[in-house]
Design brief:
This protein is α+β, with helices and mostly antiparallel strands. Helices cover 17% and strands 34% of the residues.
């Protein structure tokens, strides 16, 4: 049996790219660690936000399509993305969200307090205080390491067939059931970030992909060899798994579990600093080699974006 350390990244579809940058960098204070293009649709950005080093377990990525149709959050998707913040940081985030007129609600589950809100395009997010996880040493405006988002706390999965999704989490991904409360069952991986997954036990009406929805959730593989083991393991257990795809900053394989959520397994290396320095990550448009000859054309087509402090 194999076990993943936890979430590698989560990828979502959003609207205007500058609005996306303003929310995740300008308000949430995450670092834009990579500005590249969708390898399957190079006229669209692929933007990566994470902690200061762009470490696995901290990265949320986006395909921003200005003026695209709104999606519907539902079964077959990550319904809620959870971020972990340092213990004692919740009051800071309540004030910060209020400052930018972001409506939020407070809730509690499994003995933890959550701050729930939406981004500009309708993605459902929440913050939870956790002692686990490394400090994020990225400072942006008023967001300093003492309050900065560490990375993923986890996610709530919406499944059209929860029993199948639960079986996949336990028997394929190697997560352990650690609790049940109301409609939720909680699972945990062995890592200290991106390690808590809650699943709604009743089937959720199928969602529709579009702006404001999560496209896929990616799990961690230690390296290329580990990923090939995962590929064989997943295939041998009756799931249709893809060939290895080179995503430049990691290698990826994909399969759709039987609750219809798209799972990816991504390698931790090589990371985001191999084609630009740690200090300059995210400042320039980086293209895979096959698109470099089209750089001028792509730069003309892509909407200009800037990381900026918001008032």
């Amino acid at each position: 049996m194999k076990k993943t350390e936890g979430i590698h990244h989560i990828t979502a579809i959003v609207g205007h790219p500058q609005e996306n940058v303003d929310f995740y960098a300008g308000i949430l204070g995450l670092r834009l660690v990579k500005k590249t293009v969708n390898f399957d649709d190079p006229g669209t950005y692929h933007l990566y936000f994470g902690d200061n080093g762009g470490k696995p377990g901290t990265i949320i990525t986006f395909f921003p399509w200005a003026n695209a149709y709104q999606g519907k959050i539902g079964g077959g998707q990550v319904g809620v993305t959870t971020y972990a913040i340092p213990t004692g940081a919740m009051s800071f985030w309540e004030k910060r969200l209020a400052k930018f007129n972001i409506k939020f609600t407070r809730s509690e589950r499994f003995g933890e307090a959550y701050l729930q809100f939406e981004d500009f395009h309708g993605l459902q997010l929440e913050l939870v205080e956790r002692a686990e996880g490394e400090t994020n040493n990225w400072t942006f405006g008023d967001v300093t390491p003492s309050v900065a988002i560490k990375g993923f706390g986890g996610a709530i999965l919406y499944s059209v067939n929860p029993a199948e999704t639960i079986q996949t989490l336990q028997d394929i991904m190697g997560l352990e059931k650690v609790g049940a409360e109301g409609e939720l069952i909680r699972f945990q991986s062995y890592g200290n970030i991106g390690n808590i997954i809650d699943v709604i036990q009743t089937p959720v009406e199928r969602g529709e992909m579009g702006v404001g929805t999560v496209h896929h959730i990616a799990w961690r593989a230690k390296d290329d060899e580990d990923q090939l083991d995962w590929q064989q393991f997943v295939g041998n257990n009756g799931y249709g798994v893809t060939t290895v795809r080179d995503r430049n900053y990691f290698n990826a394989i994909y399969f759709r579990e039987h609750g219809e959520i798209l799972f990816e397994i991504a390698t931790d290396p090589p990371g985001f600093a191999h084609d630009e320095s740690y200090e300059t990550m995210g400042t320039e448009l980086k293209l895979p080699s096959q698109y470099e000859k089209f750089r001028e054309r792509l730069q003309h087509k892509l909407i200009p974006i800037n990381v900026r402090e918001l008032e």
